Amino acid sequence: MTALDNLAKTLSRLPGVGPKSARRIAFSLIKTQPEFNRLLAENIATIQEKIRPCSICGSFSEGDPCPVCSDSTRDRSQLCIVEQAQDVITIQSSGAYGGLFHVLGGAINPLDGVGPENLSFDKLMKRIDEGAFREVIIATNPTEEGDTTALYIRHLLKSHPEISLTRLASGLPIGGDLEYADETTLKRSLHGRVSF
Description:
This protein is α/β, with parallel strands linked by helices and 196 residues long. The chain is built from eight helices and six strands; from the N terminus they run H-H-H-E-E-H-E-H-E-H-E-H-E-H. It has helices at residues 3-11, 19-31, 34-50, 67-70, 85-94, 121-130, 144-156, 183-191; strands at 52-53, 60-61, 75-82, 99-103, 135-138, 164-167.
């Protein structure tokens, strides 16, 4: 196996990078400036030393607590529960949410051996018991695993009737065409319809 093959094989282990994309990236790295490759290698080699999970919310940050948890201007009555740390960045980039976050570290998936005990539900409940949250927003993915996780969260929060529990809406995208929507998306859209 050549050095190029080894690099492509390693790159293909990254999420969303298939064998063809990995080979394209490898060829691109061959043609780029050596300084860029050294910088890239250094950034990859040191990322886990520099970025760690926040001890409060579980999101990744260089500081502990993370900038969101340490921001006193955020709405501390709202808690948005997400599956992964990258979901925090996605929601933050919308500019539409100003509360706190909690990262579960995944979704319940018994087929893959991921049960509630493998996710940060204990830490979540401790935060809810000690906090003054008025609303908990479930922002798990609209998948079977995300739905299962959302139902589990609803079950956990039954002991907190003072908290309003909401879930991100799902359905048709802006600019979407009904003709191209799949049945599941249409069902979700119809079930989640709102007053107009």
